[in-house]
Amino acid sequence: MLKPCEQWNLRLSAYLDGEGNIIERKAVEDHLAACPTCRAAAEVLRCDAQDVMAALHARTASEGFASRVMAQVAVTPMEAPQSETAVPAEPEPYRQPPRNWLNVLLQWGLGLAVVALVASVLFPVFAKPREKSRQATCNSNLRQIALAIQMYAQDNHDTYPAADKWVDSLAPYLGSSRAMFTCPTDNQGHVSYLYNPELSGLKGSQIASPSETLAVWCTMNHSNGMILGFCDGHCKYYPGMHNIQDYAQLVRDEYARNTAIAAGQNQPGETMPDLHMPGSKPPTILPPEHNYGLVDKLMIAYTATMALQSSDVQKSMEQSELLFRQYDGFVLNSEYHREDDEHASATVSGRVPSAKLGQLLVELDGLGRLQSRTVNGEDLTASNIAQVEKLGNLADTQQNLTTIENRAKPNEALKAEDSRAGAATDAGSTRVEQYKLKSRVTLAEVTVQFSRLPKPEAKVNPWKGSTIKSFGALKAFGTWLFTGIIIPLGIWLPVWAPLTILGIVLRRRVLRRRVSTVNSGTVPTPRE
Amino acid sequence: MDDSSLIEATLAGNVEAFGTLVNQYQHILVASARHLTRNAEDAEDLAQEALVDAYRNLRALKDRTKFRAWVFGILRHKCLTYLQQRKPEPLPLDDADALPSPAVDTGADLAELLDGLPIAYREILAARYVQELSYEEIAEALGTSVNNVRVRCCRARERLRELFAERGLRVEGGVSC
Lengths: 528, 177
What we know:
- The structure holds 2 protein chains of 2 kinds.
- By secondary structure, chain A is of the alpha+beta class.
- In chain A, 47% of the residues lie in helices and 13% in strands.
- Among the domains of chain A are: 1-52, no CATH class; 128-261 and 284-294, no CATH class; 296-455, no CATH class.
- In chain A, the strands form 2 sheets. In chain A, strands 6-7-10-5-8-9 form a 6-stranded mixed beta sheet. In chain A, strands 1-2-3-4 form a 4-stranded antiparallel beta sheet, covered by helices on one side.
- In chain A, α2 (22-34) crosses α3.
- The longest helix of chain A has 55 residues, at 101-155.
- By secondary structure, chain B is mostly helical.
- In chain B, α7 crosses α8.
- The relative contact order of chain B is 0.11.
- Mean pLDDT of chain B is 80; it is low at 98-105 and 171-177.
- Chains A and B meet through α1, α3, α4 and α14 of A and α2, α3, α4, α5 and α6 of B.
């Protein structure tokens, strides 16, 4: 097939149609003189045009066409011009085809289903990176806090901050804002991180292995795991951990394993790293007491239990969890049981600094009707608020500590470490021990039990025993009508109706525009 | 007499002058309508309606030298409306491949072949080769730009050339320079 040069195609076509200005025509003529292929192609195109013209002109009007037109013209009045511009005759108005409502419904339903499907696929895809970024921010916060702890220790005679005011102590090292103490996952905006109270008042030299001693951690759940910060300033993400007790278990296991390895009692199949190679570091045997998770009974100065009755057990349970965190504590365990509407119960246990115990108990009192309240075995159900609020103050705590100290067995590991830290004599060791016990923040373990507030007696049914037997059926029908028809319609209609109306309006507008463009002759290719 | 004088006379009340115009344009309007609609029966009706509408709205025509393009514009609108309202044909004629392919170079067959082109090409062919309008007039009648008409003309030519080559109506061969 003969083809003209590509760049001359358009100009050649115009040239053959007698179009284009004199410069263009001259350029085409020059090219035709130089290019034999284009010349041949132009000849063919000219022949084509002549043939087309001849073929189309061969169709003529029938004999009486002109007279028929004139007969109609004779009875047609000439209209006055409506506007200044020349307007072509109005074509027949476009009539919208009858709407098939089933199709419209199907289209909208299908559209919504596709949107829902896409959204359900995309949401988890976008949620994952979002959680990753939160995790990274939290990790960064913890690292900053861990470094701030080190800086604080350097500025304060190598002493770690006290646990009851650790946030205030560290704030100057972290800028004026306290935003760094809140995990991005925490919507409440509280302090999301907890400080290892074991470190309270300790000297840096007393910590045998800073890289393995817990300093601060995030209480929020990060992709089913936890982020922990250590005394040397490093942070680590531990997947599969839900609370600090999980980490405590890990430390305990590790401690037992390391002890076993050191004693040459390694389990069969357990690989031995280069622990016994000459010159290598001996296996780390971390005293479990150095980690918060192993807070032993010694540190629990108070054990409180409360029983409350609440009309909404689940809500009260959630509120109590928030309260634990609000008072710088954490939740160890929370359980919710629901057998039926009448029988639901929940148990929340957690720990807060002893100094906050009184305030927590008073706040918890507001969550329901108090049934019982005991603190260290003493029944305080009938005590007034002022008495309860005083619980956990310093003098009280000291007294409790002395009792505990007398009762508890001295801790060999701590003693050994203290002696390493410089307290060579027994007297010095005792002083250090006493100082640590006094400067430490003790904890209060609180267990709250919620039960369902009994409902008032049901009203007597006035219809019972009446002659209207079908009342039950009527009620069932009413319930069915409400839940099966009215509620779904109430949900569906506000979504569907505006979308459908919008669709109709848009379609009508498009059609109107199409008609107007047809009228003004701007439609290049109408659908056939 | 040229179109302007005839229109002047028609507007002055001389219906015979419009008859002269009808005689002058009847064949090309019918041919255009037939080419656009691909229907011989309805083509004359549409051409007749276009002429009657032109007469009715003659006062609205400002530039009387452009009567030919104006009437073609009216006819084109009529044909497009007709095509929109018509039921779809059982045999799709958009593609010339669907047509029987007798390689006979007669005028009637060629015209049928041309009828197989899509409407975008058909209206350009009708305007250019039947009405013999200039690019500017076509652009005005079609409501588009001159450049667009230029490109569409060129594409219509290419399509024609391919069509003729497929049907064996032209000698094949040659090389591109």
